[in-house]
Write the structure tokens for this entry.
Amino acid sequence: MLNLIEDHGKVAVIDIGSNSLRFVIFDRYGRYPYPLFNERITCRLGDGVQKTKKLKKERIEQSLETIMRFSNIINEAGLEKVLVIGTAALRQAENSDAFIKPAEEILNTKIRILSGVEEADLVARGLVSNIPLANGIIADLGGGSLELIKVQNGKKIETISLNYGHLIEIDEKKFKQIIKKLNWENGLDDQFFYGVGGSFRALGLVFKHKNKYPLDILHGLNISSKKANRILSKIIKLNGDVKGLPQSRKATMSNAAKIMRVVLKGTKSKNIFVCGTSVREGVVLENLSIRSIKHDPLISTCEEIAKQSVRFQGLANSLEKLLLPILSIGNKDELSRLLKASCLMADIAWNEHTSFRNVIAAEKILMLPTNSLTHRERAWLAKTLFHRYNRPVELVKFPFKFKSILSIEDKFTSLIIGLSLRFAMAACAGLPDLLDNLKMDLTEKQLKVSFNKNTKSLLVDHVYEKLNILSNYLERELIIEL
């Protein structure tokens, strides 16, 4: 039985994989768990296990040294909650106790050895928490196993775990037959192939290097299967010696590429979605109460950040209420989420130097260590907050190039929402109560702003200037009522 925990506090998660040992300390549970510490050490514990069914002595020793390091950090940090899991190497090796027993003594906690199905379930849980309506196939490629999960609108349909990993030399012909027998077709336009694990992220790095992709965050990167297969074929041909591929991946990437290529072709997948999630997020979520799991990842992330960044409580609600008429410039259902997120983040750079707040606000969004935002949402929010802090808008252009991510409409809506926030924040000085007597209306020809009761004193020159710029970009006549 799981010991459910509150959605706050620090927790350590140790993931003992076939290729590497991962150690993450989350700053808090909840809908936006912040990675306070994240370390990966390549120990290749599962090296040769597929053939010999044995863990090598030198790999055990190196892995135990790593566990000792993790233990020292845990003790020094005073962490009470430690979740430890083992995957393919420990479930396949006949002598796994030679590692498990001393490791449990060092950590003073039990290691949970996941079955292939359990590992797949936790991988799916971690991914769906960030992509609630995931549709297609999730593939988690590790050193010693490949977990495949079919999902439809965020719900798990079918699961399989195969003993094929990037540390294992594969018989491609035999592997193709296994994938063919699954009969998992994934070729519809709304279906994705969600790639989980370091090999897929390495593929993403090569793609980014080759195409000069503008965002550094890998999670959410979309690659067409056509382009992915060209890269994978090159990796196989050159035995991993391709630009953009991390040195630590070159030795095993050729084998990983063979596995990925077979699965992509065998499932007729059209698009790869590179994921930053893992089995570790699933382990954390498994230990949370249900109330903390169902949410809109974008809004939940912004809510958690706003708790730390906003100066005056209630600001986001007052901003959103004032700016709701602006939604008529685009798709209301979609834009309402983005407006809410923007209002929550509107005070994110208040304590930065005024000359640099625009760029710093954008960079903060672009560098958020979360998997809860799509690339489009991240780029849109960054551009919006840049314009919210920009001064003056005519002289400073947005310094990031998102042509491949944002549509023309996206660029327009982010500009207008940003300029609207710029006006509102200047008028109220960040104090939500001062917005309650302001009203905004947007028609096909006019932008009308009403300053009710005793709020006309808010309309000073620089506030009027910001309103005038907003109306110009909207191509509406500005009407002010006092």
Remarks:
- DSSP finds 17 helices and 14 strands in the chain.
- The radius of gyration is 25 Å.
- The mean pLDDT is 92.
